[in-house]
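From the methods appendix. Each design record in this collection lists the tokenized structure first, followed by the designed amino acid sequence. Records were kept in a plain field format so they could be parsed without special tools. The example shown here is representative of the layout used throughout.

RECORD:
FOLD TOKENS (210 positions):
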């Protein structure tokens, strides 16, 4: 029996944990998809982090004013610390190939996102979080808006995908690494390959240096 490509994709991703989008909880889905576990974090935990960040503020700036989610990077960073991890901002002037993929937990993309009410797109400027990680020697896009995980391929295919994603200023990349603890002050630099800090062509043309 010959399986079509859609069925093959379903078989290949059936063992991958992938939370689908509900309300404005993409940050929660991203964290759980990143750690491949449904119970890595809950909405209640992220709401508690918001309160701890701004305990005296009625309209918390780190989430939606309706309490539906839409958590910002501060909440994600605090949540990662609970798992002894940290998020390192990636300088888009560098080429993604400078990332040592063997030294990281995964990646989180932050991209613009339209907000829809039914079939109507509302003029609200929102952000969307996306987890990317390696599973069984392949890299997967675990975007909660996808019906199933998207296989990006090997390292070079991942780098090409990231180059394309980071061409616009509206997109940001965070490298997720394990925290080395108090005795390891250089943890945030260990994911950078030596002699691989290559500027993107567009940045080079603009005369930027790292």
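DESIGN:
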């Amino acid at each position: 029996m010959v399986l079509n490509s859609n069925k093959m994709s379903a078989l290949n991703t059936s063992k991958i944990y992938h939370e689908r989008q509900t309300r404005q909880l993409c940050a929660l889905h991203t964290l759980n998809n990143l750690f491949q576990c449904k119970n890595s974090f809950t909405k209640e935990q992220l709401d508690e982090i918001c309160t701890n960040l701004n305990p005296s503020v009625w309209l918390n700036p780190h989430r939606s004013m309706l309490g539906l989610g839409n958590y910002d990077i501060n909440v994600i960073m605090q949540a990662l610390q609970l798992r002894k991890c940290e998020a390192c901002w990636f300088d888009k002037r560098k080429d993604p190939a400078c990332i040592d993929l063997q030294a990281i937990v995964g990646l989180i993309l932050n991209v613009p996102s339209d907000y829809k009410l039914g079939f109507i797109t509302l003029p609200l400027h929102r952000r969307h979080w996306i987890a990317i990680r390696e599973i069984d020697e392949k890299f997967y896009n675990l975007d909660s808006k996808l019906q199933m995980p998207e296989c990006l391929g090997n390292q070079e295919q991942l780098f090409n995908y990231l180059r394309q994603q980071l061409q616009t200023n509206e997109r940001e990349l965070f490298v997720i690494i394990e925290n080395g603890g108090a005795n390891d002050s250089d943890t945030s630099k260990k994911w950078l390959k030596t002699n691989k800090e290559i500027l993107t062509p567009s940045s080079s043309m603009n005369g930027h240096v790292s």
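APPENDIX NOTE: The chain has a mean pLDDT of 79.
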